From TrEMBL, chains A, B:
<keyword id="KW-0805">Transcription regulation</keyword>
<dbReference type="InterPro" id="IPR028082">
    <property type="entry name" value="Peripla_BP_I"/>
</dbReference>
<protein>
    <submittedName>
        <fullName>LacI family DNA-binding transcriptional regulator</fullName>
    </submittedName>
</protein>
<dbReference type="Pfam" id="PF00356">
    <property type="entry name" value="LacI"/>
</dbReference>
<feature type="domain" description="HTH lacI-type">
    <location>
        <begin position="3"/>
        <end position="57"/>
    </location>
</feature>
<keyword id="KW-0804">Transcription</keyword>
<dbReference type="GO" id="GO:0003677">
    <property type="term" value="F:DNA binding"/>
</dbReference>
<dbReference type="InterPro" id="IPR046335">
    <property type="entry name" value="LacI/GalR-like_sensor"/>
</dbReference>
<dbReference type="InterPro" id="IPR000843">
    <property type="entry name" value="HTH_LacI"/>
</dbReference>
<dbReference type="InterPro" id="IPR010982">
    <property type="entry name" value="Lambda_DNA-bd_dom_sf"/>
</dbReference>
<keyword id="KW-0238">DNA-binding</keyword>
<dbReference type="Pfam" id="PF13377">
    <property type="entry name" value="Peripla_BP_3"/>
</dbReference>
Amino acid sequence: MGISLKDVAQRAGVSIKTVSNVVNGYRHVTPETRQRVQRVIDELGYRPNLTARHLRKGRTGMIALAVPELGNPYFAELADAVIEHAAGLDYIVLLDHTGGRRDQEVLFAQGFRARVIDGLILSPIELENEDLLARGSDAPLVLLGERQYDAPYDHIAIDNVAAARTAAAHLVEIGRRRIAFIGARHGRARATAHQRLRGWREVMSETGRPAGEDLVAATDGYTREDGAQAMARLLDSGIRPDAVFCYNDLIAVGAMRTLAERGLRVPDDVALVGFDDIEEGRYAATTLTTVAPHKRAIARAATDALLERLAGEGEIAPRRIQPGFALVTRESTVGRP
Amino acid sequence: MGISLKDVAQRAGVSIKTVSNVVNGYRHVTPETRQRVQRVIDELGYRPNLTARHLRKGRTGMIALAVPELGNPYFAELADAVIEHAAGLDYIVLLDHTGGRRDQEVLFAQGFRARVIDGLILSPIELENEDLLARGSDAPLVLLGERQYDAPYDHIAIDNVAAARTAAAHLVEIGRRRIAFIGARHGRARATAHQRLRGWREVMSETGRPAGEDLVAATDGYTREDGAQAMARLLDSGIRPDAVFCYNDLIAVGAMRTLAERGLRVPDDVALVGFDDIEEGRYAATTLTTVAPHKRAIARAATDALLERLAGEGEIAPRRIQPGFALVTRESTVGRP
DNA sequence: CCCGAGTTGTATAACGATGTAAAATCTGCC
DNA sequence: GGCAGATTTTACATCGTTATACAACTCGGG
């Protein structure tokens, strides 16, 4: 098939290893030898066979990034950032999606593709702590996102309670009183949404706002459709919130759509805050106020943490890294200037 | 590191090759031998080392999909579909983005990662015909998307002229007279946008609508931002179209945003048609009429064409495959029911 | 002129799998 | 029992690379 070290070696009249040395920039090679070999390399257009290199080295130079959905712009944008950053460090990123289903997440954590990748960045939704503890694979794993686990793995996530508090506080600040929450998750104490819900609850109670269960809408997933349906249910049940804090921007977009259908104005009748700062929110007919996690910082932290573990011989204690976030106020809360 | 055939062979008291035979389902193995080996495999949790297998076989079992931007939902959704379909055929998909820059596209076409992947599905934007003809790599290549080339590669694309005609005809049908086009591309006869522009021109002239250059807005890229700016330029130049056909949904979303800012109503003042049928358009405050290419069919056709070439010994003549499309009418042209 | 230290280059053995060809074993039948 | 013919199993080479260990060469100093 391709041109191998052997071909180059033969043509240049040196041993295979010498060519390898030139390719790898090994020090002890005479300038003339190096030049001669290099010329042949260029002539033949030699390119190292990564498969063979990886077999020999026991590393593949690939890491996987498994997110719930690529269709969710937040993850697409995050993936972009990870790919970019990893490429700069000579790592290839294999992108995968779990559909947010536990069985898929377990599969990845267990080491699906273990022999193809050196390590994994996983953004779980349904994964349980026990799944992590029962992990068979010993490939480095970095967890991404809001869920909390008691397992010895690096974990990158912004402070979700604080972020949710910021969002809720903003709604209080602009004078809203009946503030709903969309995107809760039934019966999962560790679930992603839990912390954002907690931040909301704290602010509600601190500022004397109602925080009853009737103001909390659970969803199956985190899509626009889920948001639209939840908003509709909320309104149908007779609750008339004057603001909604949504688990993420997609849900907020869905909620906004339902409000438009019902003839309710944003923010005049109902103010909206989302989470993620996806580009879509910046171009909605009513632009979306949102909590913006520092995606680039998250991507960098996750990649660096993983590669550090790949490189590091000694054991490193599992770390918890909290990148920053910022509240971006737009029309869905403060109206058009 | 891991468990190899050798370990299993030793433990089971057979040769390495026999274990390999069991793993690969080779026929001539005694049921008892097979069972004994299988038990040891399960016991030790053996999993084949794909890197080694690939080295030996000369194939990696991976294909790459290179799209302009993962942040563009159309490509994210398409990628989802390709990954899904390829997984069913035991192929792993490596996702990449070119940024729509010619140098990047050339890099991929030339065989960047050639030794890592068996074949490539490329969705080019700026790539020129000469780049393809000068291609060094001999790895199978399938082209995706609207650009047309005279090069011997499979090409998957819907009939863009026909699709554009459908969209334009729809705007005519609802009685619009000054129909603008946003998303043209300066000075590139082969450019992606060219065919959609042509379809628009044809319908305009056939129905006696103006089709002057003042109604055509060029953009640098295909983002929401590009759409917003182009719409603003159009309005600022004194043109007051009563409809706009946008190169894609993202541009349409941007245009819609500008219209909202200027206090113009959709579709009453200006009707809008996009292209791609991204989910975002279904949840905009005013839902977006759009041309919906059959993404799943495209993904399947591209993957199948590539894998067929990978499997096929004999030469196959380059094919041009045209998946279907459909016009989806929503509020941005027909208003709310 | 020889010796040790340092530099440069090579032969060979892995990495973990599969393909080939030959060896070992099992049939059935005379 | 022995032999042809089929079946089952094995030993060994191989894919393209890097690591190891050693051979060859250079150089300065005694």
